[in-house]
Structures are given as C-alpha cells and as structure tokens.
Design a protein that fits this description.
Elements (H helix, E strand, L loop, with lengths): L1 H29 L2 E3 L7 H5 L1 E3 L5 E3 L7 E7 L4 H17 L4 E7 L3 H8 L8 E3 L1 H10 L9 E5 L5 E6 L4 H11 L1
Parallel strand pairs: 4-5, 5-6
Antiparallel strand pairs: 1-8, 2-3, 4-7, 7-8
Length: about 180
C-alpha cells in the first residue's frame, strides 16, 4: 500500500503545480481586460500637468468632459508601438465626436522625441515618467504592465480598462455603448 502512494504522490504534485502555474499565467498574462463599474476616480489625472512632446507643460483638465482613451506606453515597449497606428486612426476618426486619444509616456520628453522621429502619431503625447505609473495604478493598473489603456466617460468615470495591446475594433465596441 505504501508503495502505491509513493507512486502517485509525484504525479499528483506535478498536476497541482501545473494547475497553479496555469491559473497564475491566465491571471497575470492572458487577462486582457477588466470591467470597472466607473467607481474609480479620475480626479488625479485631470488635476495633473505634464509636458507635451515639445516640453511645454499641459493641463489635462482641458480634456475633462470628453470621452478619453488614455493609453499608457513607452517607446521601448513593442506592443505599445504596434497599437499606435490604430490609436492614431481612432483619434482622427472620432475627434469631432467629443472623443480624444491621449498617450501617457512612462518616459521623458527626449525619449518621446526620439520615438516621434520614427513614428507619426496624430494624438497628444505627454511625458509622465514614473508619475504616469502612479496614475495608471490609481486607474486600475494593479499589474504595472504596459501598454495599459483606459476609456474614461465624459462624466469622468471609467468605462473600461485594458491590459496589453488594444485594437481599434476592440476600443470601438466600448465607444459605441458610450455614444
């Protein structure tokens, strides 16, 4: 009997280990969107001032009252770079409908300028450095990942948050419910 338990003890251990790892991978890496009931505050965001790509301080309060697609990114982040053309298209198509896309770089102005020499972006970019990660965290980025995208309703509440790369059709699904 003891020999039987020793034989199955190792496979059971590995099965439990694999299941635990599977759940961890699903939670931390494959969970791409999180619903938010609009309860988290955006006051910190709209009270902030950050330099734009030219180094000029900009008050984000001018975007309050609009539907905001806020994308936290960095130039070294490949998924961030991949989604920017679609975010630019979205900004261009929806800017006359009280919708704005904003890019919050977790870098300094020099890094943004270096990036803009290679890539054209149609929406406003801001250099938030590490303060941007604090704001992202206050808006639901409890994983500290990039890219992280937030859709903020015109009343200042959160409509939806996305971990990882987003697409224009994915964002438009939420925008349709807000318009």
């Amino acid at each position: 009997m003891r020999h039987f338990f020793n034989k199955i003890k190792t496979p059971i251990f590995y099965l439990i280990l694999m299941m635990t790892l599977g759940f961890a991978i699903r939670y931390f890496f494959l969970n791409t969107q999180v619903e938010d009931g609009g309860k988290q505050s955006t006051q910190v965001l709209f009270a902030a001032n950050f330099p734009d790509e030219n180094g000029h301080p900009q008050a984000l309060e001018k975007y309050a009252g609009k539907t905001v697609i806020l994308n936290f990114w960095a130039s070294w982040c490949e998924p961030c770079r991949e989604e920017m053309p679609e975010l630019s298209q979205l900004h261009t198509e929806y800017k006359d409908r009280n919708v704005v896309v904003l890019g919050m770089a977790i870098e300094d102005v020099a890094a943004i300028n270096g990036f803009l020499k290679e890539t054209k972006v149609s929406y406003p970019l801001f250099a938030a450095d590490m303060q941007g990660m604090e704001i992202a965290s206050s808006l639901g980025n409890n994983k500290g990942v990039l890219p992280f995208t937030v859709i903020i309703k015109s009343d200042g509440t959160l409509a939806k948050t996305y971990f990882g790369r987003v697409t224009k059709p994915l964002l438009e699904q939420t925008l349709k419910t807000l318009m």
